[in-house]
Write a structure and sequence with these properties.
6 helices, alpha/beta, 5-stranded parallel β-sheet, about 180 residues, Rossmann fold, binds adenosine monophosphate, 9 strands
């Protein structure tokens, strides 16, 4: 009974497991596998995002490997738009474009298929990941899709870590940012 009175944000927050010091000391990992145990709640999340996005005229949805895929595929199905994977290096089989970006220690890269979407005018792309932290991953992905000809790029995540200012980084690069729950 009481759970019906909670907002979607509260229910999702309660469903996420926090794992301290993973994958390294000082990181408080937000584990969504516990949310995925509750398909009714996961479905509520997907329905909520579908309502938010259905008037936005999105042409393609990009999922960032790997947890971005979990949200991107059902949303692409609901909105009836193609899904495009952005993956870690050397996973995509055909010709790719690569973007390398800085991490706290070292660097990482992401790739997209060169023919992932047709270079039409006004291509409106939505990038999805499970969590926005510093914004480096999302910004690298937006550089990939911009190089492929996207006119408008926006970003959606389930979780946003506000204290890491990823939103500011993405907004100053011209992306619109949406997230369901904030810490
Ligand atoms: P960033 O590039 O700093 O915005 O980091 C975002 C990426 O790292 C996303 O793909 C997240 O899945 C992952 N990530 C970063 N911090 C966390 C965290 N505290 N808990 C879970 N995943 C995280």
């Amino acid at each position: 009974m009481q759970s019906n009175l909670l907002s979607l944000e509260d229910k999702v927050k309660q469903s996420i497991r926090e794992v301290p010091d993973f994958p390294k000391p000082g990181i408080n990992f937000k584990d969504i596998t516990t949310l995925l145990q509750d398909m009714e709640l996961f479905n509520e999340v997907i329905e909520h995002f579908t309502r938010e996005l259905k008037t936005e005229n999105i042409h393609h949805i990009i999922g960032i490997e790997s947890r971005g895929f979990i949200f991107a595929v059902p949303l692409a199905m609901k909105l009836n738009v193609p899904f495009i994977p952005v993956r870690k290096p050397n996973k995509l089989p055909a010709d790719t474009l690569k973007e390398t970006y800085a991490l706290e220690y070292g660097k990482d890269s992401l790739e997209i298929h060169l023919d992932a979407f047709k270079h039409q005018t006004n291509e409106n792309i939505l990038i999805i990941d499970d969590l926005l932290a510093t914004g480096g991953t999302a910004l690298a992905t937006s550089k990939l899709v911009t190089q492929l000809g996207a006119a408008k790029v926006s970003f959606l995540s389930l979780i946003e870590l506000r204290f890491l200012n990823g939103r500011e980084k993405l907004e100053s690069a011209g992306l619109e940012v949406k997230s369901l729950i904030k810490y």
